[in-house]
């Protein structure tokens, strides 16, 4: 099945799908990130209008956005939004997991971009970590940490499944399940 997008028709997705955001609270502590954004897809033309609309009240009007093109299949030069134009730029030197938002009046904000295919539990951890005021962790470090956490969770589940599959039995040094009677008695005689 193929899907055809009509790029000539303006889209107003801000009313349809709210942006999934987690922002740092207003504080004097400046950190590496100002929050996190979890888009629904890798279509910047569809995803940027709801993001900019959601940020307009707390931050002001977003006029420019920059991304690293590594994770975005198409980076449009401009995106139509509510009768105005949002300018989009790309820089290969920018962290691929970060989105930079610019405003003429308010300044710059850096958001961690959580990949759309991320599991909800992992996205929740990343959104919370990116919104910590004064955090010195970069987008790259947060993503690497989440990869390690995810690997640890998968390994723990695999070990638990193995344990349950063996009936909770202890393994001998030779890889064979051992019953409780095969275990050596401690010096006090208790099992």
Structure description:
This protein is of the alpha+beta class. Helix content is 28%, strand content 20%. The chain is built from 3 helices and 9 strands. It has a 7-stranded mixed beta sheet. It has a two-stranded antiparallel ribbon with strand order 8-9. Strand 4 (78-81) and strand 5 form a beta hairpin. Helix 2 runs antiparallel to helix 3 (139-165). The protein starts with 20 loop residues before the first strand and ends in a 13-residue tail after the last strand.
Question: What keyword list fits this structure?
Answer:
191 residues, alpha+beta, seven-stranded mixed beta sheet, 3 helices, 9 strands, 28% helix, 20% strand, elongated, disordered N terminus
Compute the CA-based radius of gyration. 24 Å
Give unreliable regions as ranges.
Answer: 1-15
Q: What's the quaternary structure here?
A: single chain
On the 0-100 scale, what is the average pLDDT?
81
Instruction: Order the strands across the largest sheet as they lie in space.
Output: 1-2-7-6-3-5-4
Query: How many beta-strand segments?
Result: 9
The helicity comes to 25-40%
Largest sheet: 7 strands, mixed
The structure class reads alpha+beta
Q: State the order of secondary-structure elements, H for helix, E for strand.
A: EEHEEEEEHHEE
Tell the overall outline. elongated
Strand content: 15-25%
Q: How far from one another are the termini? A: 62 Å
